[in-house]
Amino acid sequence: MKKKQCDVFLAYFKQGDDYDSCVEKEEDSLAATISFRDQMVSVVNHLDRIAKAIEKFGAKDTLLIDAGTHCISFYGPEDFINYLIENELATEAEIFDDEEEYDEEDELLLGFDGDEIPHN
Length: 120
Hints:
Elements (H helix, E strand, L loop, with lengths): L2 E6 L6 H11 L3 H29 L6 E4 L4 E6 H9 L4 E2 L15 E4 L3 E4 L2
Antiparallel strand pairs: 1-3, 1-4, 2-3, 5-6
C-alpha cells in the first residue's frame, strides 16, 4: 500500500488569542462570543469530516498522526490522504530539504521531527 503525508490546519490557535481576536473585531461581547463559537463549530465540523473520512477509507489502524503545538501531520494510505487534500481538509505536506520522503518500497519515512517512523 502506497502511503503519503499531509498537513492539517484547523481554524484554531490558542483559546485566549482566538477569543480576543473576536473581541477586537466585533462590536460587543455577545457578537464576539457568537463569532468565537462559530469558529469553534467550524473546527468541530472539520474534525468530523476527517473522522468520517478515516471511517470511509478504513484508515483507523494505518493512519499515523503527529500533532505538535503548531502543526498536525498525517501519514497514511495515499488514497485517504489524496481525499483529504482534494476535499480541502488537508494540504500537501511541506518537505524540507533536510528531510527525506518515504522510499519506493514505502518502508520508512524520515520527517516529522527527524525521527524515523516505521510504517504499519
